[in-house]
Amino acid sequence: MCTSALWLMGVSLMFSTSLSCYQCFVDTQDTSRLCMGHILTEYNIVNVDSCYRNLDRIFNNDERVIEAGRVGKGYDKQLKEILNAEILPMVEEFDGKLNNDAVYEKRLQTAADNFIAAASKLPRGETCHWMYPSMCVTFMHPSGYQTADKIYNCITCSYDSCGFPLDCPVKEIKVTENSRSRMWCDVQFHLPSDVEVIWSFAEKVKADQVDQFKEVTAGVDMLYSIPSTSLQHQGTYQCEIYSDSRSIVRLYYYLTVTPQVVAGHTELQEIFDLSLLPGGRLLPAPGGPPHTLLLPSPLLLIACLTAVLLLLFLSLGAMFLSTLPEQTSHAEQSDEDEDLGL
Description:
By secondary structure, the chain is an alpha+beta fold. Helices cover 42% and strands 20% of the residues. Strands 6-12-11-8-9 form a five-stranded mixed β-sheet. Helix 1 (2-14) packs parallel to helix 4 and helix 6 (76-94) runs antiparallel to helix 7 (101-119). The longest helix is centred in the C-terminal third of the chain and has 42 residues, at 298-339.
């Protein structure tokens, strides 16, 4: 009894700092039976600790074994069946018998290789999705608790989420006063069917601190729309998605509202600047290179010359028409003088 307790303690200590698919699925009693007859050839003595170290090296510290165990949700049972099919026959064969360390090494490594080959054929867990710019803010800041993308982890003997933070960075939106504003609470990864969406607002501040927000709406609507945006709508909007009373992701939008008068003045200034420059060239930015003399384009020269010539012809035509009544008057006066015999 005492010896069995020591063996169990040894098994526990062996896996106390590093777990593996072996410990997840093989019972400690079976491990004790497996290592009971391990002989250290160099000293020709039974050495259970050496057996434990071999198990630790072959199953705990081989990345191939850990990677083979990264299966999709619900396939951990198949992992257990595969590993037990390799280990339990060895337990029955080695129980109560002595075998040297070379035999253990060969048989355990074969069991690990067979597990890798079989487990690698099981469906993999879906890759964690990153929030793209249109959905979150930046490709470099993935976020959200992605429940559908859990992957089994032989190091923890449990399913892991993607491990991304709940909060996305703040995304900036700029609109003009009296225009429509629309914000979507959308993500790239799969959402459960029972989600609840809560929109909150922090007026005139750019923040992602939860305590600064006041709830605006709650329901299932992923879209938050403002038909006519005013200056009082400026601030940060938070969209938080819940499932089963658990927060999945929080998105933030900072809305900047430009007054309509300022926006109109800016547009007129841009049009004026474009009208002064040939070819629609923009004025150089402040601090940029000095202005240089820009020659007008050939089309612009032709248009200008045509306009000048047309104006000249119209002027000459007007002058010619203005002299016709005077000439007619002189001719009629001459005819009257002849009739009077003058």
